[in-house]
Amino acid sequence: MKKTLFIAAILGSAVTMSSCEVLNDVGGAVLGDGSGTTGEKSLTNEEVIAGLKEALTVGTNNSASLASKVDGFNKNAKIRLPFPEDAVRVKEWAMKNGLENKVVQFEETLNRAAEEASKEAAPIFVNAVKEMTVADGFAILKGEEHAATNYLKDKTTAGLKTAFTPKVDKAIESVSLTKYWEPLVNAYNKTTILSGKPKVNTDLTEYVTDRAVSGLFTLIADEEAKIRKDPIARVSDILKRVFGSLD
pTM of the predicted model, to two decimals? Predict the structure, then answer.
């Protein structure tokens, strides 16, 4: 407990200081003084940043690989894309009218589009990882459980959605998503002439893009938590040293 309070106090004072010399001093105080009392040389700022960049790279690569596999979205309850919320009345109408199989086919294909789009995800995170500063690094290292994930969200969400949109369009085409969507929505919209309810006109590209990006960050958060908590998940020496300093 005393050690934790000591670290927090040092990091709190470091926020008000900006020179590289001060950051070096802080890094030494937090991660060891190099006195040899532990038999291990203290980490440098460069090693801390290298470790964090590797952690982000491992986390994003693992997440993108997992999401882009067949059933990466479709069979993962955490990130599976459900029927679009703004078109749920289409689903309800279809289920009541014997079109359950069409609904199942559509939802599965919706997730196939997210899986296809996720194949392009990993490279998009590279620039955000490259741009990490020493201050970013220490904030992430000593931050809350999902500090690295939140860093990536801040740095990449807008660009990720922009880059994902054409990929999702291509994915929607490659898995023939509209083939399963149009019969459902067109049949429902015909009923609105009598019911007086508004027609449904869901933008599938926007929906898949938003949910695919959100799903990726959910997986990245899981990867970050593993690296922070589980020594077995630290797959390289630098990850073991950097995150071992928090144990």
Answer: 0.75
